[in-house]
Amino acid sequence: MTDTARPTRIRVDLDALSHNLRALRAHAGVPVMGIVKANAYGHGLVPVGLHLQAQGVEQLGVAFLEEGIALRQAGVHLPILVMGGIFGPQAAALIAHDLEITVSSLDKLRQVEAAAEALGRPATVHLKIDTGMERIGVHSYHAGPFIEAAVASRWCRVKGVYSHLACADEPDSPMTARQLERFLDACAHFERIGAPMPLRHLANSGGVLHFPDTHLDMVRPGIALYGVLPDPASRATVALRPALSLVSQVVYFKVVPAGQPVSYGATWAPATDTRVVTVPIGYGDGFPRALSSRGEVLIRGQRHPIVGRICMDQFMVDIGPAGTAYNEDEVVLIGHQGGRGIRCEEVAQAAGTIPYEILVGLNGRIPREYVGGVG
Ligand SMILES: *Cc1c(COP(=O)(O)O)cnc(C)c1O
């Protein structure tokens, strides 16, 4: 840590990422498209992309053009699929940066074709089939003419066909089996017209963990790569290691007299005189305000409650009438300390949201630090 850096950081364990990649690939038994959208789920797009590339991930997936360009400019040469619904004017840039394009309608196919022809350079595309999300993609029951047009296209090379699962994080949901059936039905159209079968991919983290039938030719784990389960109902069928820790340091110590409220809105007050420390991170960093008087942190190996409202840049922790803590003591918000741990999943539940939102919410104001990953 440099002398001028704020005492708050995200620590990313690159060895945990390597472990999760290997474990998920071994479990699925097929190539992995590592999903690194939204700043690699808060872990840092470029460092994570480069690390996964060094670890032999087969492909990367992002949501937007800009994310793909950032990876290319950083030296990622792997295939990169842009999974979002593309806008016509972006088609040329996608092709020029050698990004694989999600084609999610006949119109989009025509736009990509036109851009590819103008550039004199074919586009590599993955066809998006909607099997139940009602998001982007052609309904599976209308996939026939769409597939035929794409296969016949002079300027689009159909590398993949894919769909997205709506309920795979719940192992008992019947939705996934229905979606798989619709997807395979759509894929069968390639056979019907005598076209080669492209790469079929369907499984997000929930699919990888819970539904082996969805693994097909490639899997697209995001959150599981980072060692976090998608949902409280999810089963840890693969031993994953959380890659992200969020740590800060005590910046202030005081005794708050009984009955004196703490923080904005005066929503919490101690019943007896107690010791309260201030931690210099807040919702301005993406640490959710919903954790006000709900979350916990680790200091000196002990759990202590966050008390009062979380401010933009700081929050307060009650360490109790006899608690000890000194300025600059480490505070763990997510991660381990002294044999105890606080998982992202727990933080999400306390905040009334999903682990995804906690991770991607941690913003660029927090410095990232990378450990491991050498050799
Ligand atoms: C985000 C995303 C994924 C990864 O989802 P996880 O639940 O994080 O594994 C896979 N496929 C698509 C199309 C996505 O948008």
TrEMBL record:
Domain Alanine racemase C-terminal: 243-371
Keyword presence, Isomerase: yes
Active site residues of this protein: 37 (proton acceptor), 264 (proton acceptor)
One Pfam family here: Ala_racemase_N
This enzyme's EC code(s): 5.1.1.1
CDD domains, per the entry: PLPDE_III_AR
GO terms, biological process: D-alanine biosynthetic process
Cofactor: pyridoxal 5'-phosphate
N6-(pyridoxal phosphate)lysine modified-residue sites: 37
CC terms in the record's Gene Ontology section: cytosol
Record's function text: Catalyzes the interconversion of L-alanine and D-alanine. May also act on other amino acids.
Protein name per the record: Alanine racemase
Organism for this UniProt entry: Arenimonas malthae CC-JY-1
Lineage: Bacteria, Pseudomonadati, Pseudomonadota, Gammaproteobacteria, Lysobacterales
